[in-house]
């Protein structure tokens, strides 16, 4: 505890010392001064810390320094003194510390490897260089190895190693062929950072004999070559596509450390088929746009100039159509030391105080150590004026012997910083560096700067005098700067004269005289005029200038801001003349008058026109008026007269008078008035306290003239303001204040100096006196401590030094609002119908609103459905009713549900408290349509109907109503039959129907309120069960029929398959929509396939679907209803990893292998497969058994190798399909909605024609994988 106390106590005088410290001297960069002043050594040039040299050339280690007297130099090598005189191969440059090691004449570079440090020393201290590490560059040969030819199969991945020799510095790697041509690279083939060549997948064109890796060593300008690698790629009839895996880096995570300021390079190279693409991201952040670079087809991510903020986890994702993989690289940014505050040279006078501060940062935090004259300060000779406090060296009461060079070393495990800073204690009398009797010349009304550069130690005090005697020049109109310069902001003619600068300190004083001359400005008193001239004519431009007689002006003419053409037709004498004018001579001509002190210019436009056949009148803008004169000048008016300029053949129609207020808006000309063209005098109304100038512009039908010269300035007398601020408002920003705002008057409206505002307020309807405050330069005043939301009378009055403006108008404002205090009472709900309710409430007292009443807000939410009796997610809805209302309507309610609501009052601050929750229930409504309606098991005279309850019963179901009627061949409807069905039934068998007849069914759900919307379907009873067509009117025609439609759905897609009997070569289409809606979407089926995949479906949604045939109007299957699987995270166990499943798959694989061997033997014997015999018996050429070569199903004949199997050809002779007899049912293969399908609609592993493999969306599903899918991947 005592130790901590002593430390804290020692900090107090340090703090007080720093507060009282005198700032150090600054030595001006004057060469003569620097030559005379003694100065410790300073290192000016040195070799880099890590110095790699060419072993074939001389080694030059630089060390240059300056100081007074000139420093001497010495060197250390590997921490010990390096005796240069004893080494014949080493020499030091004269007047320098630079070493030259002679390698070209016999020295060996390897002998001189090591760490070198230079010291520059004079009588005032010693400065040291960095530690310079000398290393010769190396370019070793490749290790001998026998290249092994590589042979791979098309589609495989491959890595060709480079493994270059380790050089110094590391070599640059590239791959070329024998012809020295760079090998092409792409997303598929690329070179890694380690030099290896990576193939994501190989192609036959990759076959070549000359894959050669080259290493270029830049320092020695040599290139080493690896032995060529031969690559042979065998073509494959087919190859299996595969998802990406990473070739480099390996594993799922890795770590990388990089230093601050370097470039971070991260690499991910993947293999796969198709070729993967790489994408990068940073977890929890964004990649820096301006510093991020992608290289090597985005396989390499580079971030330039990294900092600690770039630390984090970077993820590369490799993706192709079959999936993705990723790798996470955890990047840690460390930092070698870097400066926060580097120590700076310190020049002090005896007895002064100062500090050297050395602050650096890094990761890890660097260690700070001090040296003096190259020796650790701990063992250096003691100096009573010096004290070290961590990163600060404190000097107090220094003497000349305190001069020294201090070194600050900041180091951590990643590097170091070394900085020299000298302390130079000087006792110098004042000296003035500005030359004596220096002449300064300026133009009238411009600033004049008189220099007095000085130096002395202690810092001299500077004083200026006019001439040899007089008082010190300070204050208006003079400004003295710390560097000794005297500024006269606006020099006048009487400022001309001699000025004396005196510098003094305790060691003496010195003075210097300078001279100032103030010149008249250069002016153009006769400007060139705009001219219009005919071709071949002659034109003259005049430019008359007035200048100071002591200055010699030069006049230059420009055309379009460039030099005049080098043409003898242009003659410059007293004016510019152009002879024999051409069209090219048209343009802007500028007269520029220059002196050594100023420059002025004026321009005129020359327009060249064609010479008319007969003289024509030339119309042009009028010339500007001139000779403006002000007369009859009164306080609020004056008379302005002028002489019109030439109208240039177009009569002047009007004159525009403009004014400039030089006091408030100098340089801005504003509109004053306009008078007819026949008038040359106008009486002007003026405002008080305005410094007026006027100009006149003439206007004719061609346009406006240039403005006239400005009139003399006229300052009107000041007066009280004529008007008060506008836009006065009083609105509270907090419950206890009133904010009064207004639009301030412009300077023009102030009417006099000292513009202020008198702000007054009092509470309305209360017998209070006005409270007032006078303020200036603001447009807002806040009154605090007011009651909440009460009316105030507010007024703002302008005033100036001459008095007040007229009494202002009063405005009504309010203090700040607060939240309402009372909730609406007696909330009642009246049910209008099953979806609409009317809410009534009582108004709250206006005093309790405590603000501007904006309206009432109803919060209402559904608690639960009375039919479901289950809790659901509460989603509150809000309705706002503006104004002072007492009721509102709640639309869009759900029937037969329980709701809660409350009401709140709203003001400008927000909502008040809520009324107690009111519970109400909506009555029953009609239900939605049944969720699905299926018609199955068609017989001669009966059909089976199956249905699901409505998705939204909207009440208690009382039953169902079925209506149906026959449809004849001309699509006419027969008599309608109606059947009532109890609510607990889900199926019905309709008997006594006509055979081979189409029926249309309308199925309704009912509550006590009535029937909902119907679900419709159509179905056909079958013919006789023997398969013989009964006699009919259109006998001989094949009647089309869909005997079965099957659906199997996943999360976002569903496979629809059907069985069809009827005419061949029919194009099918599929229509689908959300169950319960009337909308249908149509998708055409490619060819006559009997399956189709619906994509892009919404997870967890019920859909309706039906199938139709093009060219058969009115022919449509019955509707089927299915529901997509819910979107959920995959948390099921992957059965592909279960032991029982692996054993089952092994058994299946063994059985298939045995069958293939038996089939192969049978074929060689010329026998037939049993399946083939069965096919011969059926004589159906479209049945496709399994092929031997690729494991897919196909013909034994090669004639129709790609013809798809028609499902209708598998229908039994009785023309019916039973579920247990159908060996291709998709539902039987899958697991309900979890069945897996390819995107083309074929079930994984099903018998299909040979085709290109497409990516399966099922792989992205979160459901458990299908056993069949797993079997295919295993085999």
From TrEMBL:
<keyword id="KW-1003">Cell membrane</keyword>
<dbReference type="GO" id="GO:0045162">
    <property type="term" value="P:clustering of voltage-gated sodium channels"/>
</dbReference>
<dbReference type="Pfam" id="PF13927">
    <property type="entry name" value="Ig_3"/>
</dbReference>
<comment type="similarity">
    <text>Belongs to the immunoglobulin superfamily. L1/neurofascin/NgCAM family.</text>
</comment>
<dbReference type="GO" id="GO:0008104">
    <property type="term" value="P:intracellular protein localization"/>
</dbReference>
<dbReference type="InterPro" id="IPR036179">
    <property type="entry name" value="Ig-like_dom_sf"/>
</dbReference>
<feature type="compositionally biased region" description="Basic and acidic residues">
    <location>
        <begin position="1170"/>
        <end position="1190"/>
    </location>
</feature>
<dbReference type="Pfam" id="PF13882">
    <property type="entry name" value="Bravo_FIGEY"/>
</dbReference>
<dbReference type="InterPro" id="IPR013783">
    <property type="entry name" value="Ig-like_fold"/>
</dbReference>
<dbReference type="Pfam" id="PF07679">
    <property type="entry name" value="I-set"/>
</dbReference>
<keyword id="KW-0732">Signal</keyword>
<feature type="domain" description="Ig-like">
    <location>
        <begin position="337"/>
        <end position="424"/>
    </location>
</feature>
<dbReference type="InterPro" id="IPR013098">
    <property type="entry name" value="Ig_I-set"/>
</dbReference>
<dbReference type="InterPro" id="IPR003598">
    <property type="entry name" value="Ig_sub2"/>
</dbReference>
<dbReference type="GO" id="GO:0030424">
    <property type="term" value="C:axon"/>
</dbReference>
<dbReference type="InterPro" id="IPR051170">
    <property type="entry name" value="Neural/epithelial_adhesion"/>
</dbReference>
<dbReference type="GO" id="GO:0010975">
    <property type="term" value="P:regulation of neuron projection development"/>
</dbReference>
<keyword id="KW-1015">Disulfide bond</keyword>
<dbReference type="GO" id="GO:0007417">
    <property type="term" value="P:central nervous system development"/>
</dbReference>
<keyword id="KW-0812">Transmembrane</keyword>
<dbReference type="InterPro" id="IPR003599">
    <property type="entry name" value="Ig_sub"/>
</dbReference>
<dbReference type="GO" id="GO:0098978">
    <property type="term" value="C:glutamatergic synapse"/>
</dbReference>
<dbReference type="GO" id="GO:0098839">
    <property type="term" value="C:postsynaptic density membrane"/>
</dbReference>
<keyword id="KW-0677">Repeat</keyword>
<dbReference type="InterPro" id="IPR026966">
    <property type="entry name" value="Neurofascin/L1/NrCAM_C"/>
</dbReference>
<feature type="domain" description="Fibronectin type-III">
    <location>
        <begin position="1039"/>
        <end position="1127"/>
    </location>
</feature>
<dbReference type="GO" id="GO:0031290">
    <property type="term" value="P:retinal ganglion cell axon guidance"/>
</dbReference>
<dbReference type="InterPro" id="IPR003961">
    <property type="entry name" value="FN3_dom"/>
</dbReference>
<feature type="domain" description="Ig-like">
    <location>
        <begin position="521"/>
        <end position="607"/>
    </location>
</feature>
<feature type="domain" description="Ig-like">
    <location>
        <begin position="41"/>
        <end position="129"/>
    </location>
</feature>
<keyword id="KW-0130">Cell adhesion</keyword>
<dbReference type="GO" id="GO:0086080">
    <property type="term" value="F:protein binding involved in heterotypic cell-cell adhesion"/>
</dbReference>
<feature type="domain" description="Fibronectin type-III">
    <location>
        <begin position="823"/>
        <end position="925"/>
    </location>
</feature>
<feature type="domain" description="Fibronectin type-III">
    <location>
        <begin position="926"/>
        <end position="1025"/>
    </location>
</feature>
<feature type="domain" description="Ig-like">
    <location>
        <begin position="244"/>
        <end position="332"/>
    </location>
</feature>
<keyword id="KW-1133">Transmembrane helix</keyword>
<protein>
    <recommendedName>
        <fullName>Neuronal cell adhesion molecule</fullName>
    </recommendedName>
</protein>
<feature type="compositionally biased region" description="Basic and acidic residues">
    <location>
        <begin position="1212"/>
        <end position="1221"/>
    </location>
</feature>
<keyword id="KW-0393">Immunoglobulin domain</keyword>
<dbReference type="Pfam" id="PF00041">
    <property type="entry name" value="fn3"/>
</dbReference>
<feature type="signal peptide">
    <location>
        <begin position="1"/>
        <end position="24"/>
    </location>
</feature>
<feature type="region of interest" description="Disordered">
    <location>
        <begin position="1170"/>
        <end position="1275"/>
    </location>
</feature>
């Amino acid at each position: 505890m005592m130790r901590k106390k002593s430390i804290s106590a020692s900090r107090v005088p340090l703090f007080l010392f720093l507060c009282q410290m005198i700032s150090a001297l600054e030595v001006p960069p004057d060469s003569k001064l620097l030559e005379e002043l003694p100065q410790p050594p300073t290192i000016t040039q040195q070799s880099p810390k890590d110095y790699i040299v060419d072993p074939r050339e001389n080694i030059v280690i630089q060390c240059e320094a300056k100081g007074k007297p000139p420093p001497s130099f010495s060197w250390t090598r590997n921490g010990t003194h390096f005796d240069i005189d004893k080494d014949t191969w080493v020499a030091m440059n004269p007047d320098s510390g630079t070493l030259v090691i002679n390698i070209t004449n016999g020295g060996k570079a390897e002998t001189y490897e090591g760490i070198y440090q230079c010291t520059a020393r004079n009588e005032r201290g010693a400065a040291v260089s960095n530690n310079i590490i000398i290393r010769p560059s190396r370019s070793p040969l490749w290790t001998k190895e026998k290249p092994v030819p590589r042979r791979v199969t098309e589609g495989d991945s491959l890595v060709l190693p480079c493994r270059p020799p380790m050089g110094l510095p590391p070599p640059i790697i590239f791959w070329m062929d024998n012809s020295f041509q760079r090998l092409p690279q792409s997303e598929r083939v690329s070179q890694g950072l380690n030099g290896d060549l990576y193939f994501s997948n190989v192609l036959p064109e990759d076959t070549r004999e000359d894959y050669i890796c080259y290493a270029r060593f830049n320092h020695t300008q040599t290139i080493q070559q690896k032995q060529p690698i031969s690559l042979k790629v065998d073509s494959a009839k087919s190859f299996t596509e595969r998802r990406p895996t990473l070739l480099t880096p390996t594993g799922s995570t890795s770590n990388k450390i990089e230093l601050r300021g370097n470039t971070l390079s991260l690499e991910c190279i993947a293999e796969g088929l198709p070729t993967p693409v790489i994408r990068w991201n940073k977890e929890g952040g964004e990649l820096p746009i301006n510093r991020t670079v992608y290289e090597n087809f985005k396989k390499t991510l580079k971030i330039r100039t990294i900092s600690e903020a770039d630390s984090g986890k970077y993820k590369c994702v490799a993706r192709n159509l079959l999936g993705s993989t990723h790798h996470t690289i955890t990047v840690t940014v460390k930092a070698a030391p870097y400066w926060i505050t580097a120590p700076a040279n310190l020049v002090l006078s005896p007895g002064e105080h100062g500090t050297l501060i050395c602050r650096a940062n890094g990761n890890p935090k660097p260690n700070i150590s001090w040296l003096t004259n190259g020796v650790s300060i701990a063992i250096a000779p003691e100096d009573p004026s010096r004290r070290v406090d961590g990163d600060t060296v404190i000097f107090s009461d220094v003497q000349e012997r305190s001069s020294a060079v201090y070194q600050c070393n900041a180091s951590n495990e990643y590097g170091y910083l070394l900085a020299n800073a000298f302390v130079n204690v000087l006792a110098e009398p004042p000296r003035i560096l500005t030359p004596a009797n220096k002449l300064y010349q300026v133009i009238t009304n411009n600033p004049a700067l008189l220099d007095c550069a000085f130096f002395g130690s202690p810092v001299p005090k500077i004083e200026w005098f006019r001439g040899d005697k007089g008082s010190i020049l300070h204050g208006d109109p003079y400004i003295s700067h710390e560097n000794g310069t005297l500024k006269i902001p606006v020099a006048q003619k009487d400022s001309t004269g001699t000025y004396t600068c005196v510098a003094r300190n305790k060691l003496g004083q010195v003075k210097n005289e300078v001279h100032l001359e103030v010149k008249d400005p250069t002016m153009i008193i006769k400007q060139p005029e705009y001219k219009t001239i005919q071709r071949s004519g002659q034109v003259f431009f005049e430019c008359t200038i007035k200048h100071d007689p002591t200055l010699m002006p030069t006049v230059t003419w420009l055309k379009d801001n460039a030099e005049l053409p080098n043409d003898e037709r242009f003659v410059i004498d007293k004016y510019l003349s152009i002879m024999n004018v051409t069209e090219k001579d048209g343009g802007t001509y500028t007269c520029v008058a220059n002196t050594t002190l100023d420059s002025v210019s004026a321009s005129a436009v020359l327009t060249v026109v064609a010479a008319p056949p007969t003289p024509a009148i030339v119309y042009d803008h009028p010339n500007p008026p001139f000779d403006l004169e002000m007369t009859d000048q009164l306080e609020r008016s004056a008379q302005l007269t002028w002489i019109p300029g030439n109208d240039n053949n177009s009569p002047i129609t009007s004159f525009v008078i403009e004014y400039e207020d030089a006091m408030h808006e100098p340089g801005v000309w504003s509109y004053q008035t306009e008078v007819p063209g026949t008038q040359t005098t106008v009486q002007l109304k003026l405002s008080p306290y305005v410094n007026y100038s006027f100009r006149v512009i003439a206007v004719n039908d061609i346009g406006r003239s240039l403005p006239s010269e400005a009139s003399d300035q006229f300052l009107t007398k000041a007066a009280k303001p004529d008007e008060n601020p506008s836009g006065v408002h009083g609105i509270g920003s907090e419950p206890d204040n009133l904010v009064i705002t207004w639009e301030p008057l412009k300077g023009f409206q102030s009417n006099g100096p000292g513009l202020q505002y008198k702000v007054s307020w009092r509470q309305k309807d209360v017998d209070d006196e006005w409270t007032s405050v006078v303020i200036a330069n603001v447009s807002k005043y806040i009154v605090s401590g007011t009651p909440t939301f009460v009316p105030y009378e507010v007024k703002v009055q302008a005033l100036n030094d001459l008095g007040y403006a007229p009494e202002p108008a009063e405005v009504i404002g309010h203090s700040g609002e607060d939240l309402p205090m009372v909730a609406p009472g007696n909330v009642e709900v009246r049910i209008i119908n099953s979806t609409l309710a009317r809410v009534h409430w009582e108004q709250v007292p206006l005093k309790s609103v405590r603000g501007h009443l904006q309206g009432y807000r109803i919060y209402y939410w559904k608690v639960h459905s009375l039919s479901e009796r289950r809790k659901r997610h509460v989603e509150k809805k809000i309705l706002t009713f503006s104004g002072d209302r007492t009721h509102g309507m709640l639309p869009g309610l759900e029937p037969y549900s329980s709701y809660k609501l409350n009401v709140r009052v709203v003001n400008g601050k927000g909502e008040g408290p809520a009324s107690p929750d009111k519970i109400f229930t909506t009555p029953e409504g009609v239900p939605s349509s049944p969720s699905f309606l299926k018609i199955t098991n068609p017989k001669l005279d009966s059909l089976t109907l199956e249905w699901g309850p409505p998705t939204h019963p909207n009440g208690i179901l009382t039953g169902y109503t079925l209506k149906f009627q026959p449809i004849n061949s001309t699509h006419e409807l027969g008599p309608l039959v109606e059947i009532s069905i109890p609510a607990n039934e889900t199926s019905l068998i309709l008997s006594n129907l006509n055979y081979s007849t189409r029926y249309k069914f309308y199925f309704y759900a009912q509550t006590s309120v009535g029937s909902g919307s119907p679900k419709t379907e159509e179905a056909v009873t079958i013919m006789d069960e023997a398969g013989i067509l009964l006699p009919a009117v259109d006998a001989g025609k094949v009647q089309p029929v869909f005997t079965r439609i099957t659906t199997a759905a996943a999360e976002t897609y569903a496979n629809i398959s059907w069985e069809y009997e009827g005419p061949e070569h029919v194009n099918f289409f599929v229509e689908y929509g959300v169950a319960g809606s009337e909308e249908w979407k149509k998708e055409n089926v490619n060819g006559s396939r009997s399956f189709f995949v619906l994509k892009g479906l919404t997870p967890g949604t019920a859909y309706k679907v039906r199938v139709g045939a093009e060219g058969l109007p009115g022919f449509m299957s019955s509707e089927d209803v299915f529901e997509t699987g819910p979107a959920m995270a995959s948390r099921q166990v992957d059965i592909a990893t279960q032991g029982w499943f692996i054993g089952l798959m092994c058994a299946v694989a063994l059985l298939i292998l045995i069958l293939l061997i038996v089939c192969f033997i049978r074929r060689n014997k010329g026998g037939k497969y049993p399946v083939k015999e069965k096919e011969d018996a059926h004589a159906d050429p479209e049945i496709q058994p399994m092929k031997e070569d690729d494991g897919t199903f196909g013909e034994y004949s090669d004639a129709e190798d790609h013809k798809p199997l028609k499902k209708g050809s598998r229908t039994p002779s009785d023309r019916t399909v039973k579920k247990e007899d159908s060996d291709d049912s998709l539902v039987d293969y899958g697991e309900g909605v979890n069945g897996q399908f390819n995107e083309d609609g074929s079930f994984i592993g099903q018998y299909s024609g040979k085709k290109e493999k497409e990516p399966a969306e099922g792989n992205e599903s979160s459901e458990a994988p299908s056993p069949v899918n797993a079997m295919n991947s295993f085999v």
